[in-house]
Amino acid sequence: MLSFFRVIAILEGISYLALFAVTMPLKYLADLPMPNKYVGYAHGALFIAYIILAVVLWMEKKWSLKKGIILLVASLLPFATFYVEKKYLNEDATLA
User: Fold this and answer.
1) What angle in degrees, to the nearest 10, is found between the helix axes of 80-87 and 65-74?
2) Packing angle between helix 2-18 and helix 34-61, nearest 10 degrees?
3) At a CB cut-off of 8 Å and minimum separation 6, what does 46 contact?
4) How far apart are CA 87 and CA 49, in angstroms?
5) Burial class (CB in 10 A: 0-12, 13-18, 19+), 30
6) Which DSSP string corresponds to 60-94?
7) Which has the closest alpha carbon to 25: 16, 15, 35?
8) Mind listing the pLDDT tens digit for each residue in 10-64?
9) Computed from CA positions of residues 31, 32, 34, 37, in that sequence, does the dihedral angle turn out positive or negative?
10) Cα(first)–Cα(last) distance of the chain, in Å?
11) DSSP helix/strand/coil, 16
């Protein structure tokens, strides 16, 4: 389950960046709203999956309150899911 969460974390981060760096400029500068719609749907689904999996793993693995909050806040910040995946979700990282 941890490896699946790692994949979701990376995909959620990529979709977040694609939404803001690619499709929003297309929508507002080039008047092309459709890419934003579909990337927005994908990002929404990945965001929900990330939050649900973060909470499930937090409870299942009995991670600390600090780690749980870091996992949840990371979904709101650009690039943060990449940081969390590398620092907290890597098999070599300490899972305290």
Assistant:
1) 140
2) 150
3) 8, 11, 12, 15
4) 20
5) exposed
6) HHT--HHHHHHHHHHTTSTTHHHHHHHHTSSTTS-
7) 35
8) 999 999 999 999 999 999 999 999 999 999 999 999 999 999 999 999 999 998 9
9) negative
10) 17
11) helix
Contact 35, 56 (CB under 8 A): no
pTM of the model: 0.86
CA–CA separation, 32 vs 29, rounded Å?
Answer: 8
The neighbour count for residue 49, using CB atoms within 10 Å, is: 16
